[in-house]
Write a structure and sequence with these properties.
The chain has eight helices and five strands; from the N terminus they run H-E-H-E-H-E-H-H-H-H-E-E-H. It is of the alpha/beta class. It has a domain at about 35-95 and about 145-185: 3-Layer(aba) Sandwich (Beta-carbonic Anhydrase, Chain A). Strand 4 and strand 5 (about 180) form a beta hairpin. The chain is globular.
Length: about 190
Amino acid sequence: MSIVSQLVAFNKQFVEEKQYEEYLTDKFPEKKIAILTCMDTRLVELLPKALNLRNGDAKFIKNAGAILTQPFGSAMRSILVAVYALEAREVLVIGHHGCGMTNLDTNALISKFSEHGIDPLAVETLENAGIRMEKFLRGFGSSEEGVMHSVKMIRNHPLFPKDIPVHGFVIHPETGALEVLVEDYREESNTQ
């Protein structure tokens, strides 16, 4: 049986047995937070449990390394939608130790494209059109560097409200231990 067949069979049973009922919530995050984090498989259940988050508590935006590569890309759009349309009032950027984006070898990744049948001319054409693979596929030197890059990009985004805090963290992917890099209550502390 293929993985898709297994997933569909389980899903049918899940719905028939109404197992979904314990997850019912609405589209607004109960704790008013949006979290940009890595797509790492170790964080799928660990991160919410380590932060005492349940289904419906937060908006999760996931990508490779929790890094924003473009100020007008889909991850930043998701953050803006979470704030303006879904009532998130704080943003957390959570990277993790041992991230695959740390010191990512862009050239090795590009060479894997051709191993999977991508014509090297496609990469050359993109480069000639101004899409720099080194920037598009860029990783970071450390998890902390990646998190702070994303925190700064969000804070400095021309469409992001200045009164919404943007916090930065690194989580340990085995223990769930959280390190605070920046707790951002700039506006709140200035008004007191």
